Task: inverse folding
């Protein structure tokens, strides 16, 4: 158990913490829009589930391509310039939806999403490790979970707004403009970029890690970091796959329309996801992060297995409960993977931010399995991913 008196954020870092935490809402919104667009493009362009998954593939490829350059940039120029660069790329990518809608090209939309993904790689490579550094080491996972809770708030707002615009009351495709929410988002993001360009974020320096003989210690000698990087990749496969096809799953089970499903995704799944992060952050101020991760990993493996059993509405309830269990996983694995890395932190963060390439692998695999079998059987993809996370959680619990 932890001391109840441990402060979440050091007093001198409260303002930077508030500013950086605001970024989590912005990229949560960007991620969650994709989950509604997936279904929209299937209907509007008459494409398969595997083809529509390229929406996720393209954006998360932006992470994979830009993560290392972002880490090098941030390592040289600092966290603040990394955040500003990410916001500019994000905003420009969002505004590219205007010409994309004008020429009505799926590939143009994909390019815009790729640019957004590049921007988000900068943002997350800077913001995630920065938040872990703004207080005591023992509360790093709790602090990052609290900040990431506002990511969940963005995830709730996006499906409601876009689902309302794209789907009519009977669940069919609506007449709204997909570019409109992106344009609004782009303008807001560019305004936030102006704010961050004018504020001063304190840089946090670390001594270079050396061994007993005075030689620099390699990042790759930290085996738990390597394990954590693969666990984060597996988590992204599970989370993004489920989000991508949640609406498909619910509609094909004939439980509700696409529009109603987008509301259930927002208030049910993503609402529980946000609550799970707030509650998890509070619990981890009192309980070790490793123990919390193990309990939640066990929970999400069980709930995903129940979905595979296909037991009617019980499977839907289990799927929604899975959102609460998985909520703390990304920030907790991220924080635990960076633990004790010191001067390697920025570089390590860039490698960890390559993990969203799971958003490329997962939806493609799940979409392919769904096209070949059923939506129910496609949940074998996230199930296997979460089992890997469970093994990582067990290992971290054993060494805690």
Result:
């Amino acid at each position: 158990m932890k001391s109840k008196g441990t402060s979440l954020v050091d007093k001198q870092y409260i303002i930077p913490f508030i500013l950086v935490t605001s970024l989590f809402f912005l990229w949560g919104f960007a991620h969650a829009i994709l989950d509604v667009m997936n279904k929209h493009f299937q209907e509007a362009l008459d494409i398969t589930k595997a083809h529509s998954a390229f929406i996720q593939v393209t954006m998360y490829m932006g992470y994979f391509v830009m993560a290392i350059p972002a880490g090098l940039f941030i390592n040289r120029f600092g966290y603040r310039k990394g955040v500003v660069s990410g916001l500019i790329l994000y905003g420009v990518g969002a505004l590219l939806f205007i010409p994309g809608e004008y020429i009505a090209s799926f590939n143009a939309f994909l390019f815009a999403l790729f640019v957004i993904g590049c921007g988000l790689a900068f943002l997350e490579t800077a913001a995630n490790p920065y938040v872990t550094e703004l207080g005591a080491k023992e509360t790093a996972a709790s602090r990052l979970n609290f900040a990431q809770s506002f990511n969940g708030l963005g995830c709730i707002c996006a499906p409601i707004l876009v689902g309302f615009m794209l789907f009519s009351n009977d669940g069919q495709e609506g007449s709204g403009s997909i570019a409109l929410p992106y344009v609004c988002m782009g303008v807001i993001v560019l305004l936030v970029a102006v704010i961050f360009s004018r504020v001063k974020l304190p840089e946090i320096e670390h001594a270079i890690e050396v061994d007993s003989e005075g030689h620099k210690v390699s990042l790759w000698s930290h085996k738990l970091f390597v394990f954590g990087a693969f666990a984060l990749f597996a988590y992204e496969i599970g989370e993004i796959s489920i989000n991508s096809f949640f609406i498909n799953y619910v509609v094909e089970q004939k439980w509700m329309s696409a529009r109603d499903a987008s509301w259930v995704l927002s208030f049910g799944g993503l609402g529980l996801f946000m609550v799970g992060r707030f509650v998890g952050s509070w619990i981890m101020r009192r309980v070790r992060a490793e123990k919390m991760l193990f309990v939640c990993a066990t929970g999400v493996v069980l709930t995903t297995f129940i979905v595979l059993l296909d037991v009617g509405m019980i499977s839907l309830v289990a799927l929604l409960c899975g959102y609460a269990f998985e909520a703390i996983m990304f920030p907790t694995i991220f924080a635990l993977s960076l633990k004790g890395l010191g001067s390697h932190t920025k570089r390590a963060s860039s490698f960890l931010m390559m993990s969203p390439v799971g958003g490329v692998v997962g939806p493609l695999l799940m979409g392919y399995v769904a096209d070949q079998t059923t939506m129910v059987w496609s949940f074998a993809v996230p199930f296997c991913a979460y089992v890997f996370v469970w093994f990582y959680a067990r290992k971290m619990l054993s060494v805690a």
Remarks:
- The chain has a mean pLDDT of 83.
- The radius of gyration is 20 Å.
